[in-house]
Design goal:
alpha/beta, Metallo-beta-lactamase, Chain A, nine-stranded mixed β-sheet, eight-stranded mixed β-sheet, globular
Length: 344
């Protein structure tokens, strides 16, 4: 199948506000329609990517074009003047997070591949077997450097402080303040082991703090943050589980902004929107997609949503630009509007 690229008009729209300032950390939340692909560009120009989206053709969506997410990542990379990925961090080995690794490496060279060790769940679409890496991912990292990390390790990115805070189902071993929101949190079924063992990172630029926990499940989220909050306060949280309903344990992190890499019918439902909005000090929830089942009342206002229509998805991203003093902005290319958040 021939590769397809974003229409010229879309690229023009994406370009608005895409230029980066030399002293900012720029984070691009790329629309993979319910997968994850997050591009970070440090003030030094070094890049880190978290996950690669879908392969573009999967059993649930057989009409999807191969390479869609690779093309979307490459389009955003061009706008950010990114010509390679210095470090690719794979949160876990599900098709919506690592399925697009071949398509990514066909479009952009990747220097270092980082993960927390072999897959622990059989996922036929990735040809995985328990105890082994997926064949497509192993083929990709064979062309670069491969590094396995554990909780507490640092991931070197010039200009940023990147800490692995969760890996292989284990949290970073450090003290934190008592979490007053832990009492009375109901337990939930555990789900699958790949999500449970998601690799999580904390990224800091001066006073600005951003976190991504992959698809960390509800129970692991509570275990991670209770009885002590080992993360401290956050400015921006990329929501676990594509905007799944968070436990109250996350309230201790007091994220000012949460950004969901959701799809039109995946993640960021009304319960999640309500839970985030109840978090102390919370300001805004931004979505990559309008949540169709939630309807107007179950979504944040439209100015906080990148893609409104399920049919004819334009593939628009969201962009955070952060300063060392902790201030940051969020840009929505659909509205061509930027919202500023002052340092605290």
């Amino acid at each position: 199948m021939a590769r397809t690229f974003a229409p010229f008009a879309l690229l023009l729209l994406l370009a608005a506000g895409a230029a980066r300032a030399a002293n900012t950390l720029d984070i691009y939340f790329i629309d993979t329609e319910g997968g994850q692909a997050t591009l970070l560009v440090s003030p030094s120009g070094q890049t880190m990517m978290i996950d690669t989206g879908f392969a573009g053709l999967d059993t649930a969506n057989p009409d999807k074009e191969v390479g869609r997410d690779g093309d979307r990542i490459a389009a955003v990379a061009r706008l950010a003047d990114v010509k390679r990925i210095d470090t690719l961090v794979v949160s876990h080995f599900h098709g919506d997070h690592v399925g697009g690794v071949t398509q990514l490496t066909e479009r952009l060279p990747v220097r270092v591949f980082v993960d927390d060790g072999p897959a622990v769940q059989d996922v036929p679409i990735l040809k995985q077997r328990v105890g082994e890496y997926s064949e497509i991912y192993a083929a990709a990292f064979a062309k670069g450097q491969h590094k396995v990390v554990k909780a507490g390790d640092k991931i070197p990115v010039d200009g940023l402080d990147v800490t692995v805070v969760a890996a292989n189902g284990k949290a970073i071993a450090r003290k934190g303040d008592a979490n007053p929101y832990c009492e009375g949190i109901a337990s939930r079924p555990e789900g699958n082991p790949e999500d449970t063992e998601s690799l999580g990172v904390l990224v800091q630029l001066g006073k600005f703090r951003f976190a991504n926990f992959g698809d960390m499940l509800w129970g692991k989220e509570v275990e991670f943050l209770c009885p002590e909050n080992r993360m401290g306060k956050l400015d921006v949280l990329e929501t676990p589980r594509h905007g799944g309903e968070p436990s109250k344990a996350i309230y201790a992190m007091a994220p000012r902004v949460a950004i969901a890499d959701n799809g039109a019918r995946k993640g960021a439902g009304p319960a999640a929107v309500k839970a985030f909005q109840a978090s102390p000090g919370f300001e805004d929830l931004w979505l990559l997609h309008f949540n169709v089942p939630g309807g107007k009342e179950g979504n944040p206002p439209e100015q906080f949503i990148a893609n409104l229509n399920e049919a004819g998805d334009q593939g628009l991203y969201l962009k955070v630009s952060a300063m060392e003093d902790g201030s940051f902005t969020v840009y929505n290319p659909r509205t061509k509007a930027t919202k500023s958040y002052a340092a605290k």
